[in-house]
Write a structure and sequence with these properties.
alpha+beta; Ribosomal Protein S4 Delta 41, Chain A, domain 1; 9 helices; single chain; globular
């Protein structure tokens, strides 16, 4: 079961959102790909199902999950107390690969996933190579000692050191170590996703 490895700008244009981060190609062409993508007269209003499906796809591609993973995470969210949509986003944010990205140890979620897969990351001092691990408040994420000299890690930590601002995370650049303090509030999560539409889709 392969993940999406195709053109990021094309997928972002299809979904109408820069889901992979800032992209100059997307900024220049904020309309669907294809020869009719910029034809205003050809655009049709999406059905409720179409809107719900698009929001789910945005979340899946943004966080890099497969359909089965996403559905299982939704089931987990719906079994917990609280607003299901908000809990779903909190669980997505608590994934190890996402946290490595948010802490600035990697430039993208895809790169963060590779760091985890290649055994460069530890959780509470234990080497962990499963990107989907869900962190709990108090968990400490670190770059493995031998891996702290990796160019991609050093460059990413240096580049994001000034703009890193996620209140549910704490980062120590000198130790290349971060702490997952708590589950974020909905307004703190920067992703432009209408989670209620996802809940409606899976509730049918």
């Amino acid at each position: 079961m392969a993940r999406y490895t195709g053109p990021k700008a094309k997928k972002a244009r299809a979904l109408g959102e820069a889901i992979f981060g800032f992209d100059r190609a997307f900024e220049k062409k904020k309309y669907p790909p294809g020869q009719h993508g910029n034809g205003r007269n050809r655009r049709r209003q999406k059905s409720d199902y179409g809107l719900q499906l698009m929001e789910k796809q945005k979340a899946k591609y943004a966080y890099g999950l497969l359909e089965r993973q996403f559905r299982n995470l939704f089931k987990k969210a719906s079994s917990k107390k609280g607003v299901t949509g908000t809990v779903l986003l909190q669980l997505l944010e608590s994934r190890l690969d996402n946290t490595v990205f948010r802490l600035g140890m990697a430039p993208t979620r895809r790169a963060a996933r590779q760091l985890v897969n290649h055994k460069h990351i530890t959780v509470n001092g234990v080497l962990t190579n499963i990107p989907s691990v869900l962190l709990k408040p108090g968990d400490i994420v670190s770059v493995r000692g031998k891996s702290q000299g990796l160019e991609v890690v050093r460059d990413s930590v240096g580049a994001k050191n000034e703009v890193r601002n996620f209140p549910w995370l704490e980062f120590n650049a000198d130790k290349m170590q971060g702490t997952f303090l708590e589950y974020p509030e909905r307004e703190q999560i920067p992703e432009k996703i209408n989670e209620q539409l996802i809940v409606e889709l899976y509730s049918k």
